[in-house]
Amino acid sequence: MSTVFNDIKSRLQGSMVALVTPMHPNGDVDYKRLADLIDWQIEQGTHCLVAVGTTGESATLSMQEHSDLIRYYVDYVAGRVPVIAGTGANNTAEAIKLTRDAKEAGADCALLVAPYYNKPPQEGLYQHYRAIAEAVDMPQMLYNVPGRTVVDIAQETVERLADIDNIVAIKDATGSTERGKALIAALGDRMVVLSGDDGTSLELMSFGGKGNISVTANVAPKAMSETFSAALKGDMQAAKLAHDPIAHLHKDLFVQSSPIPVKYALNKMGKIDTGIRLPLVWLEEQYHSQIDDALTKARLL
Description:
Layout: H1 3-11, E1 14-18, H2 31-43, E2 48-51, H3 63-77, E3 83-86, H4 92-105, E4 109-113, H5 122-135, E5 140-144, H6 146-149, H7 155-161, E6 167-172, H8 177-187, E7 192-195, H9 198-206, E8 211-214, H10 221-232, H11 236-243, H12 249-252, H13 260-268, H14 288-297
Parallel strand pairs: 1-2, 1-8, 2-3, 3-4, 4-5, 5-6, 6-7
């Protein structure tokens, strides 16, 4: 494996925020608020930034907006922390184009969600990821989130893909610690295993996971950074101490489809405006008090 790929593997760890894409009320991207969020996240100790992932509303951004946002992240972050670029698609050619753009922009790693809606078989998943890896010589991360994609990347397929040098990590958002443990045991040092499920992420760290790509870190970056910094050192007692006051957010921030609740929360905190793109809509009023109370309990208001 190349030195470049080994280097990024060592940096894919800790608290990694799947950052929202701030928008104006008319749906246009709000780059000023995005810059403020990036600075705040880095100041609070976040280890890596994920640009234009699911939480960043990648599904409703145009191809041009997608690539423009990744380039903006890379230029504005300016090497302060790694930038992981969401470049997945259910069209292999489109995923290659987005990944190529991310490489040209200077992103540190590409995050590739399993092709959604098509429901490809395991061989199709393997060929999809292999094609992207062969087309774009940059570090790449698999993203398994069957609750959204309706397709599950089987462990056997992940193990086959681990033999491809530039596929360096997997974001496991199955919510199953047993699945994560099995991946860690099978992959060894060939691939970094990261959690993509806030509720089970700390438990996965205790079994050898290297970090968490998080929704909750959008609103509680310091607590999440302290949690996963301690976990990386093997101090699970300190990790739990930092984590317990904000653990309830992992549930509260999913009262409706993400990123609806987390965008409401960030707006309540004065961090972003009220923009969100159809078919997503602003948080229904019946949930406002629940999120308000959750933020107050976490001492974020």
